Amino acid sequence: MINVILADDHVLFREGIKKILSDTDDIVVTDEVGNGQTLINKVHKDACDVILLDISMPGRSGLDVLKQLMCEKPDLNVLALSMHSEEEYAERMLQAGASGYLVKQCTPNELITAIRKVSSGRKYVSSTLAERLASRFSKKSDKVLHERLSDREFEIMCLIASGKPIKEIAEELSLSSKTVSTHRAHILEKMGMKHNSELMHYALQNHFVD
């Protein structure tokens, strides 16, 4: 039996995942949490085969949580499940130690297949993402601008590019508006830009926002 811990702050979404997995004979959700810190505490006490991790929970970002989990328990199998497109976060999550990445629009069969695959210690990515990563690593080019950003800066850049104001971003990430503004200044400096409109244009070009 594959024991799964489900980490997502939306109760209705957790209920939907549990219903999907209840129809299998070999996968069971043994526990569920609504934020990253609770997940870390849970993992310290209880063993599991796979963690389904939403990367946009309140408080600490999914990337931060994943990095801590990998430092403390590098053998964990973490499957990132996110509303964000693969273009936005997949590569960073995989580099941080995730065993796979799925968008929440995936089919139930794809979710079940991914859980079974990562539980055996293998990686799971979509065929589209696999092709893009293969193409990326085959090219010997300079770093693209967004790779200069920290994980938190990249997250904030995507939110700014989606048109969200500083105050709303601060509330969503449980940060102060001053901290978000400081991150914004660093983002613009690192990317050689001056205005949010330039960030929006760059994000659209790279398919980080729709």
Characterization of this structure:
- It is built from 10 helices and 5 strands.
- The model has no long low-confidence stretch (mean pLDDT 88).
- The protein folds into 2 domains: 2-137, Rossmann fold; 145-205, Winged helix-like DNA-binding domain superfamily/Winged helix DNA-binding domain (Arc Repressor Mutant, subunit A, Orthogonal Bundle), CATH 1.10.10.10.
- The N and C termini lie far apart (39 Å).
- It is globular and about 55 Å long.
- The protein is α/β, with parallel strands linked by helices.
- The longest helix has 14 residues, at 177-190.
- Helix content is 52%, strand content 12%.
Brief sketch in words of this structure:
By secondary structure, the chain is α/β, with parallel strands linked by helices. It is about 50% helix and about 10% strand. It has ten helices and five strands.
Number of strands: 5
Quote the beta fraction. 5-15%
Number of helices: 10
Q: pLDDT under 50 segments (min length 5)? A: none
Which architecture name of the largest domain does CATH use?
3-Layer(aba) Sandwich
Largest sheet: 5 strands, parallel
Distance between the termini: 39 Å
Query: Which structural class should the secondary elements be placed in?
Result: alpha/beta
* Average pLDDT metric: 88
The CATH superfamily of the largest domain is known as Response regulator
Strand order of the largest sheet: 2-1-3-4-5
Shape from CA axes? globular
